[in-house]
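Try this one yourself first.
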């Protein structure tokens, strides 16, 4: 994985920019987990078992490495945007962070 960040006009980057091979491997590992989810807590738990976490930043779902906290992909980057997941799993119950731009799943 390259340590460069995806450019985002006027805001901090959401994820690292992955080379195409790393992105394909990440999708191969995580997309089945996301597709098999039946609810938000189940998705978060399944991602945690793979070593990843689920967070929300600036209205987008972001997958992070549990060990480092570094963002690795958005839902759209995996081919499963937040809007599609929300249509299937329902709207996630979120706890907004103090920064007003990020949130975590509310248990």
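Now uncover the answer:
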């Amino acid at each position: 994985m390259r340590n460069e960040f995806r450019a985002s006009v006027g805001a901090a980057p959401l994820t690292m920019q992955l080379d195409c091979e790393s992105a394909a491997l990440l999708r191969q590992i995580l997309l089945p987990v996301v597709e098999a989810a039946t609810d938000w807590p189940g998705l978060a738990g399944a991602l945690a078992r793979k070593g990843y976490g689920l967070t929300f930043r600036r209205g987008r779902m972001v997958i992070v490495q549990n060990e480092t906290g570094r963002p690795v992909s958005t839902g759209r980057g995996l081919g499963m945007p937040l809007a599609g997941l929300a249509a299937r799993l329902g709207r996630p119950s979120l706890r907004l962070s103090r920064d007003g731009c990020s949130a975590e799943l509310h248990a």
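Discussion: The helical segments are 20-36, 40-49, 75-78, 82-89. Confidence is low (pLDDT under 50) at residues 1-10.
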